[in-house]
Predict the 3D structure of the following.
Amino acid sequence: MDSRVGGVVSIKVAMLGCGTVGAEVVRLLHEQAGDLAARVGGSIELAGIAVRRPNRHPDVPADLLTTDAAGLVASDVDIVVEVIGGIEPARSLLTDALRAGKSVVTANKALLAEHAADLFAAAGSAGADLYFEAAVAGAIPLLRPLRESLAGDRITRVMGIVNGTTNYVLSEMDASGAGYAETLDEASRLGYAEADPTADVEGYDAASKAAILASIAFHTRVTAADVYREGITAVTPADIAAARTLGRTIKLLAICERVNGGPDSAAGEAVAVRVHPAMIPRGHPLATVGGAFNAVFVEADAAGSLMFYGQGAGGSPTASAVLGDLVAVARNKVVGGRGPGESSYAALPVRPIAQVDTRYHISLDVADRPGVLASVATVFAEHGVSIAAVRQQGRSADASLVIVTHSAPDAALRSTVDKIAGLAVVHEVVSVMRVEGEEP
Ligand code: HSE
């Protein structure tokens, strides 16, 4: 436990992992030791760093490195910082730490999105803290504002760009008109995408972050499995061109919303959480978020709209969030208090995407002859989907037909598209994309 050296409290920290983020945490802990001690009211002492291959960390003091992560967690440390990522061994190590009353700071979104309830339970029964600001949107202070600053408000929506890799790829596709695969290759070559970009491009990373955001915003347990997820691998140059024609751009959005009505809630209220590419107006603040940046909109009853923007990944930005948590947790240790625990009292049901109201943009190549527009419009009417705008442009033998709908249940919109695709007068469904950020 925290010890006093010459009357000064010393907080001992174990670090698990020492990759890009961990190395920055070590550097900043060393460089800012004096300031951090003054802010905490006691010195932060790095007691050890658990890594798999000690010879790969020449910049870190060799006497701090160990391959025995479990031994380090069990040693006389007050706080465990985890930057390994993935479910195991992080889950077991952090559970052991929390059960032993050691507070935890982690950047592990996948772990929090699946096992937050168990980790909070372990923390709660041992009186320890569990902080994870770095798990969502890197440097951007987002979880603490949701958890603490907005604790007195009623959050209705959280919508944003929470994955830098996909935002970079979509921004580049928009700028160049190039296809997805070649743009991803270029992003990998330039170091903007991981060697294995699956978690990013398939939307798993954003879905984990959405689950964490929704859990906090709506005081409800939401796991990654509750999140509807579509990545960006199917976004085509035709989608980008269609968006551009309509004054829109395409972003991978994480959308967490409070929804009313529906069959699954006696109280009529539920939450819906989804990650998918969407067209947004080029004038929307999220449309101007380019490259590897993240940005998140929060809407709350009393506060109105708030926007958070900044670097969502990278060693230094993520280390900033880790250190912020470390200072907060260390302060709690010094004064003998605790930060907020899990808040899941609302326990709202999670609404499946099929029942969530969305809007679609649909771009079709159709035969250009009398009655075609009417036959397409009939399918919308049959599915109870109201059309907001139609644009038709004749070419030689066929025509381009662009339809934007009003809000309707996603299942009805999908069935509409499926039925339209089977019409003899429809030559090709060129682009189908959800529309966000406006309601005509
Ligand atoms: N791979 C993530 C991104 C950063 O591209 O934004 C870590 O969550």
About this structure: The longest strand covers residues 248-260. The pocket of L-homoserine is lined by residues 163-165, 200, 205, 312-313 (CB under 6 Å). The chain has a mean pLDDT of 95.
